[in-house]
Amino acid sequence: MPPRVSVIIPCYNEENTIGLLLDALYAQTYPRAALEVVIADGLSTDGTREAIAAWQKAHPDLAVHVVDNPRRTIPAALNRAIAASRGEIIVRLDAHAVPAPDYIARSVAALEAGRGDNVGGVWEIRPQGSGWLARSIAAAAAHPLGVGDARYRYAASAGAVDTVPFGAFYRRLLDRIGRFDETLLTNEDYEFNARVRAANGTVWLDPAIRSVYFARPTLRALARQYWRYGYWKVQMLRRYPKTLRWRQALPPLFVLTLVTLGLLSPWWRWARLLLAAQVGLYALALAVAGFQIALQRRCLPCLLGAPLAIATMHLSWGAGFLWGLVRPPRPATTDKVAADHATAE
After folding, report:
1. Distance (Å, rounded) from C-alpha 333 to C-alpha 345?
2. What are phi and psi of 85, to 5 degrees?
3. Which of 137, 133, 107 is nearest to 119 (CA)?
4. Which of 90, 184, 263, 306 is the S-S candidate for 302 at Cβ 3.0 to 4.6 Å?
5. CB atoms < 10 A from the CB of 330, how many?
6. In the 8-state DSSP scheme, what is residue 130?
7. Closest to 305 measured CA to CA, from 133, 155, 128
8. Is residue 220 helix, strand or coil?
9. Strand ranges in 43-103 using DSSP code E only, listed in sequence order
């Protein structure tokens, strides 16, 4: 009998996508009898619970359990799902991701081969919608100018990395490093992997382990998502300052420079010249990226949409990071956390 695997899923108002994920789990090549799915639902207010119940009724041969997550945050959901699970191996997924059919089998194989303590794979970013802007956002979210050296967005070779999306690990890893940090509303995966590496463990990325992830459909949703990323990255860095990477430092430095030069420009000519140079070079880089994306994806509207999406990512992430430096988080109400959770990745 292969190792029993528990798939844990944080969920809140995912009526439109939870069925896609459950269908993908049902189609896994890993033995179904050795699988269980534990969904930690943040008391969804749409038809998510009904959709899960209907799916369970139609597929009684896959064990699917739903537990309540009254805190309505992602790390709290993960911890509640872990507490309710029984598997020797934990596979963490999201409610708006779709794993490839061999996702679990390859993850288990990498763990059994001792490749890493937490193993994961590459995201295939797809648009959440059919419009030109949704397509542009998905393309931008996979381009190096948008995501820097985040290898899980585009890696072609396996190796040790800082972090992986989702991840799979033996339950015993939790005895070494603890569970997910519930004081972080975002960046919980990165923080978890920072503790793995601090405990002399290895975070392993294998591009053969693949999943589809649906990008945000609008610039407004994208901006909110990346503002949260930047804001909560600061809170994580307060505990692990050595984990700061160049790709994370550049957006706040860029935004800070823009603001500073903008404030100085009315009084000093050199500030106006530097601001013009900075904006001009940045616009040129965005234009080049837009041309590359449009050519590679045969998407003419991406000439405009991809630069807009990349700029939104950079400016929102940088502004959120700077805001996090001056204003630490305050306790949030349950309803506010739920609203944020619905837009978090």
Report:
1. 20
2. -90, 165
3. 107
4. 306
5. 5
6. S
7. 133
8. helix
9. 63-68, 89-92, 97-99
d(C-alpha 134, C-alpha 17), whole Å: 16
Helix (H, G, I), strand (E, B) or coil at 164: coil
E strand intervals along the chain: 5-11, 35-41, 63-68, 89-92, 97-99, 118-126, 159-160, 168-170, 203-214
Distance, in Å, from the CA atom of 291 to the CA atom of 142, rounded to the nearest integer, reads: 15
Question: In this structure, how many other beta carbons lie within 10 angstroms of the beta carbon of residue 39?
Answer: 26
Q: Quick one: how many helices (H) and strands (E) in the chain? A: 13, 9
DSSP state for residue 2 in the 8-state scheme: P
Domains and CATH numbers, the chain: 5-217 (3.90.550.10), 238-343 (no CATH)
Q: Which residue has the tokens 């439109």?
A: 16
* The token pair that represents 246 in the structure block: 């160049």
The span from the CA of 191 to the CA of 187, in Å, is: 6
Separation in Å, CA 345 to CA 94, 115, 135, 326, 340: 8, 26, 18, 24, 10
- Give this prediction's pTM: 0.83
Burial degree of 207 (CB within 10 A; 0-12, 13-18, 19+): middle
Could you read off the pLDDT tens digit of each residue along the chain, which spans 345 residues? 899 999 999 999 998 889 999 999 999 999 999 999 999 999 999 999 999 999 999 999 999 999 999 999 999 999 999 999 999 999 999 988 899 999 999 999 999 999 999 999 988 888 887 788 999 998 888 887 776 666 666 667 788 988 898 899 999 999 999 999 998 888 889 899 999 999 999 999 999 999 988 888 899 999 999 999 899 888 888 887 777 777 778 889 999 999 999 999 989 999 899 999 999 999 999 999 999 999 988 889 899 999 999 999 999 999 999 999 888 776 543 333 433 443 333
The Cα–Cα gap between 193 and 117 comes to: 9
Helix, strand, or coil (residue 265): coil
**In this structure, what token pair is assigned to residue 209?**
């382990």
